[in-house]
Amino acid sequence: MRTQVAIVGAGPSGLLLGQLLHKAGVDAVVLERQSGEYVLGRIRAGVLEQVCVDLLDEAGIGARMHREGLVHDGFEILAGGERQRVDLNALTGGKSVLVYGQTELTRDLMEARADAGLATVYEAEGVAVHGFDGARPYVTYRAAGQERRLDCDFVAGCDGFHGVCRASVPKGAIVEYEKLYPFGWLGLLADTPPVSDELIYVNSPRGFALCSMRSRTRSRYYLQVPLSGSVDAWTDDAFWEELRLRLDAPARARLVTGPALEKSIAPLRSFVAEPLRFGRLFLAGDAGHIVPPTGAKGLNLAATDVKFLAAALIEFYRERSEAGLEHYSARCLRRVWRAERFSWWFTMLTHRFPDDGPIAAKFQHAELDYLLNSEAGLRTIAENYVGLPLDFGAA
Ligand code: FAD
Ligand code: DHB
């Protein structure tokens, strides 16, 4: 089989890239290790920046997102027992974010791909990328018990943090920066009305908590937990009890509990690979970088990588120009590092670090007290949260 772009991974990055290329008449095949149902069963991100919303519109899959997504003009931070609203709209000249689950967005992209009759190979085993340092890369894999080969012009590594593409790059050609955090997030999804109309990020003496949502009837909550524990040790009752202990009295009074639809623990990590291009192999999304989830930047960064990669590939086929491909890595990395910084900083500001003494909590509270009572401080949080510009001008 032959295609122009071989896309490894059918998460949001791979599917969105496939859709943008298809709209521009560029041919692509998507290879995914898991089944479609498995991909849709992973509960992940929930908050989309305007840049991401615009891109999904450009890809022609925005209709349901606009119908069902919830526009949020602000969110709250609860620290030291007090709540402070971050008025995104007022602080950023009218910007907001959209609450729409990654699962739904992935479903929209999958359906668009199926409706257009585009090729996706689910349950592709043993995917391996070859020859990307030359002009004729190809990908091998097994499907339905048969060895297959896909010849292509370019390979897009959209296969997440544990994927095969980044792992195939010679060690001397790549630099990896990594920080692991000494805790994870335990997430619970439930068909109960959210505790508040807006998200609440909670810094409590018992650790961080986040009250989020997927709709007016579906809540998503997270608790900072030690990495040593297993998700099986957390009954639904234990989760709700611990959440209650981290909330304030008004939120406790409004909290509606119910059986978990899904419960999982995610480790927190900051990670960046440099560069994001190796000959004819390009990394996009979690394959190239990971942020801790505080601030909801992961999916949004993936979307902007894909925007730049799609534009560069389309330019190559239309104009035979490699300018976009040459700038791809540097263009993405500048925005990536700014989001990495924000996610790290927001994590440090809101979580309990087990090895820190009491003075660390005092520093945190003093910093939050300063930020949340200063127009400049609030604006710093707000402009990062709604998403920084796509390009920043001269470095
Ligand atoms: P992925 O979604 O990881 O997709 C990669 C795809 O590649 C997967 O389908 C995988 O099966 C496939 N794949 C992997 N290896 C191979 C292979 N060898 N061959 C073929 N296919 C392969 N972000 C937020 O903004 N907010 C959040 O709340 C949030 N919560 C998260 C919770 C968890 C548990 C995780 C893991 C991430 C979370 N993120 C969150 C981050 C966000 O979900 C990711 O940034 C986003 O999924 C990135 O999309 P992606 O397509 O690049 O990678
Ligand atoms: C969600 C996750 C986040 O990391 C975040 O900052 C906000 C919302 C969510 O899953 O709803």
Short synopsis of the structure:
With 395 residues, the chain is α+β, with helices and mostly antiparallel strands. It contains twelve helices and 20 strands. A hairpin with a 2-residue loop joins strand 14 (200-204) and strand 15 (207-213).
Give an overview of the whole structure:
The structure is a single chain. The protein is of the alpha+beta class. 36% of the residues lie in helices and 28% in strands. It has 12 helices and 20 strands. The protein has helices at 12-23, 36-41, 50-58, 63-68, 88-91, 102-115, 236-246, 249-254, 298-319, 323-350, 358-372, 375-385; strands spanning 5-8, 28-31, 47-48, 70-72, 74-79, 82-87, 97-99, 120-121, 125-130, 138-143, 146-151, 154-157, 175-190, 200-204, 207-213, 219-225, 260-274, 277-278, 281-283, 289-290. An 8-stranded mixed β-sheet has the order 6-5-14-15-16-13-17-20. Strands 8-2-1-12-19-18 form a 6-stranded mixed β-sheet. Helix 1 links the parallel strand 1 and strand 2 (28-31). It is globular and about 60 Å long. The mean pLDDT is 96. The structure holds flavin-adenine dinucleotide (FAD) and 3,4-dihydroxybenzoic acid. Flavin-adenine dinucleotide binds at residues 8-14, 31-34, 39, 44-46, 102, 124, 127, 158-160, 162-164, 266, 285-286, 293, 296-299, 302.
